[in-house]
Amino acid sequence: MADAVKGKEDIEGDEKLRVEKPMLGMVFNNKKELKTFYSNYAREEGFGVMTRSSNTGEDGELKYITLACARSGKNHRLAKNSLHPLPSTKTDCKAKVNATMYADGKFRLTTVVLEHNHGLSPSKARYHKSNKKMNSQVKRRLELNDQAGISVNRNFYSFVVEAGGYDKLTFGEKDCRNYIDKARRIRLGVGDAEAIRNYFVKMQAKNSNFFYVMDLGEDGRLRNVFWADARSYANV
User: What mean pLDDT value characterizes the chain?
Assistant: First the structure.
């Protein structure tokens, strides 16, 4: 790939690594390298990324791909008469890069549009879905700490301290909570699911307003669970 990243020694007085702007003719060895480069550029500039379109040949190999700003395209409401339509983040932004695979198997940028029709926020770039990443080491540590009884906020804060600030992380506390919740559900075995069901049955016997639903997989493991009591109904 072309020199996309300049080292600290090349940037006087700047501690951050600068990602070079996309330019026509830039070459990438594969799709992963291309997406990594554009994602890094987007994170530094302050916008999210989406794969707008792609095309594969008869051999199943990717031949063409468009990576665009996550705010590209127009909003399409599913319910025109909705009383509470969700706010749209789409602005029909035209910022994008097109890449074509040539005979040598490498991708070259054939179209580059850098201008956005909306504001950019580098400080908030990590909140974009495309910029959120959590590697296997982080996931493993979250699980081990959770099993050791360490709270999610303390778990997350330890990553913040090690990274040197919230803005240095590619994930947030909510991402940690979501992952731990998912990991806990996976850890629930057949016996655990049965124990929960028995507890809910007892609660229902004591309180007729208590309601629960359990979703079990074919192997008997708990996949999802919902419950509500009188207090929950009162808050609706």
Answer: 78
